[in-house]
Amino acid sequence: MAFKLAEKSLSVSIKNSLLTSVFLLLLILGGVSAMTKMRLTALQDTIEAVGRDRLPKLRALGEINLLVARVRSASYRIALTATPEQRADVERAFNARIATLDQRIAALKATLKDGSALKLIFEQFANKWTQYGKYQALILDPELAKDRLRYSEIVNVETEAHFQGVVDLINDGIKLANQEADAAIDEAIAESKFDSLILWAVNGVSVLIGLATLIFVIRDVSTPIHRITSSMELIAKGHLDADIPYADRSNELGLMARALTVFKKSLVENDRLNAATRTLSELSEWLQSAKSETELYDMISSVLGRLMPECKGSLFIYANSRDVLEVATEWNGKSHTASIHPEDCWSLRRGHAYVHGTSEIEFHCDHVHDGVNDNYCCIPIVAHGDTVGLLHLEYTFDRSETAEEAKARFADRARLGHACAEHLSIAIANMKLREGLRDQSVRDVLTGLNNRRYLLEMARRELLRAERHKTPLSVLTIDVDHFKSFNDNHGHDAGDAVLRHVGEILRTLFADDAVPCRFGGEEFVVLLPNTDMDEAVARAEALRGKIEALTIRYAEGHLPRVTISAGVASFPEAGGNFTELLRVADDALYRAKQNGRNRVEGPDHALPDADRIGDEAVAALATVRSVKSESKAA
Known about the structure:
The chain has helices spanning 2-6, 10-80, 84-111, 117-140, 142-146, 148-158, 160-236, 252-288, 293-307, 346-350, 403-442, 452-469, 483-490, 492-509, 533-548, 578-594, 610-633, and strands at 311-318, 325-331, 339-340, 354-356, 376-383, 386-395, 473-480, 515-520, 523-529, 553-554, 557-558, 564-571, 600-601. The chain starts with a helix and ends with a helix. The radius of gyration is 67 Å and the shape is rod-shaped. The chain has a six-stranded antiparallel β-sheet with strand order 3-2-1-6-5-4. The chain contains 17 helices and 13 strands.
């Protein structure tokens, strides 16, 4: 019973088990005392019964036996007395003994129970003694006593057997009485032994009750408390992965275990939040070190995906047009929405974070599809008073969580999302600011090409890569022919129009890994990684033909035909650094101008197979035009 009660109430089970044990032990002790008293009383009664019943009988039988012997000896004396006076005295004593013997026989016979073995023996003795009286008369005859020989035969032979029979019966009665007394005592002793066995059994039951109580205390009280205490010590030392037993019980131990489990979860959560805070601090430092927006968004998805594994998230960033937000990165699953309108999200419309699934009054955002869990939050990314994006988090339920635990964890993730949004807003704003400043510092405003500063940075990097990997690298220097006449004859706006169209063609033809730049004025430079001399000349010819075929509409008419001159130099033939390459390419450019402009020149005065390369460039240009025409027609 105590074992079953321990599953419900430990205190009640301990109280009941102790009270039951004490009650049973007191009951057993009382029973033992009572049985001992009863056994002692029974032994005393047995002894008294033996004293009251058997001992008087034994005494009476012994006296009768003694009187029988005295009567016989008195009969001898009567027969052997010589004088009448002496004979009279002996006869008086003899008769007195006979009377006493008869009284004792009658008294003893009256005390014996009918049908008992002792009474049967005593009746045989009485009959035997009556028969012996006949022979007693012979012994008393004084005349017969005179014949000594005959008298000796009567005494020792004829009457001896009869007298011995009387004595034997008396002795049998004495033995029987002794046997009955011994049997009564043996029976009392046997009962005492049986009672002793019962007492031993009762003592064994007492020991078993004590052992059962001890086992209960050790198994259901001491051991569980020790295990829970050990778990508490491990948790106090920081081992938050320690197992907490007995949480499934409904007694006090279960309450303690469940309370300790909740405490452990809070410690784990606090530890996780502290780790998240440290991670956010480290993340802020890393985000400030990102070199591009792509790298920044990759870092955000990687860290937030591990920081909130139970949340699927997306980061939306405003497009340059400010009319739509596009997915910049996502984690823990694909987003169902690639872009959203600012009016689709309640957080953007209301100007602050919107947490869905925790309030009485709430509405779904238009950008949230039907498969999204009701527990989600949208947090605007605000930097310097300007909204730059949106952080969207969707909480995924764990089946092992209760509704209350899921609600509390989701609220915690929402708070963590707010903290993340603050760090992200600063990092994104700084990155956009850096990108804007960098773009202004390395990009030419008129043509949209990179400027001279960017060219020098890329040239150093690509030269080191070419030298390390033993790959070629070429440089094109380009100058617009007669550019000054455009400015002088048509105005600077016309000159700017020419430069813009040339820059557009450069961006179109060198959209791969090539680096086209405006070097200054009407001069352009193109850096061609992994390109040898022949390929560089072909691409320069394609560019020259494309520009030659260019028609620029300006004001009410068209500007004159625009042509370029180009010089080509390649690494490592032309030199080992960019200054050498640029000098060789410039020399080739000057030769192209001296040779009539609208041409491409290499390091020496005559390029090998110049006609062939020119034909291939023209054919390539025609192919490009044909492909574009077909695409427009389609």
